[in-house]
Amino acid sequence: MEQVAPDPATKPDRAHYSIHRFDDEVGIQELRRMIPVADSMNWLFLSTGGIHGHYGVLDEVEERWDEPDTEDDHHHNITVLVVKPRMVMMHYGTIELRSMDDIQFLRERVTETLDAVAFSQIGNKAEEKKPTDAAMEGGE
């Protein structure tokens, strides 16, 4: 694996942040315990892929739910990234979903996360540009 050079504008701060990997065997139970609700303290992102998983989405898991997993195709799994922004903590991994209730639980947490992230950034994003009358008429 290629080593990434540290950014000279940053420095390690191991005393104030942490990164943890989910254990595949207890992932969904731990996730349910950790995030009973997504809010300003807990955000859940799925399908983050990269070096810790794959980019599969819940729609695909749901479509193939009745198909058995194989050695090469673990379609009951989903890649997760939990961010605890106020604690500067992350949890990541690929977890196995055990029931359709797990899918519904994850969908609800993602919806709550998107709302919480948007709320946390009120006052920080660029103003939306409204079309001018000239732009609407094909001008400037």
Q: Can you walk through the features of this model?
A:
The structure is a single chain. The chain is an alpha+beta fold and 140 residues long. It has four helices and four strands; from the N terminus they run βαβαββαα. The chain has helices at 27-34, 58-63, 100-120, 133-136; strands at 18-21, 43-46, 77-84, 89-96. The protein has a four-stranded mixed β-sheet. A hairpin with a 4-residue loop joins β3 (77-84) and β4. The termini are far apart.
Topology at a glance:
Blueprint: E1 18-21, H1 27-34, E2 43-46, H2 58-63, E3 77-84, E4 89-96, H3 100-120, H4 133-136
Parallel strand pairs: 1-4
Antiparallel strand pairs: 2-3, 3-4
Helix content: 25-40%
Question: Which strand order spans the largest sheet, edge to edge or round the barrel?
Answer: 1-4-3-2
Average pLDDT metric = 83
Largest sheet: 4 strands, mixed
Structural class: alpha+beta
Strand content: 15-25%
Low-pLDDT ranges: none
- Rg over CA atoms, rounded to whole Å, is 19 Å
Q: Number of helical segments?
A: 4
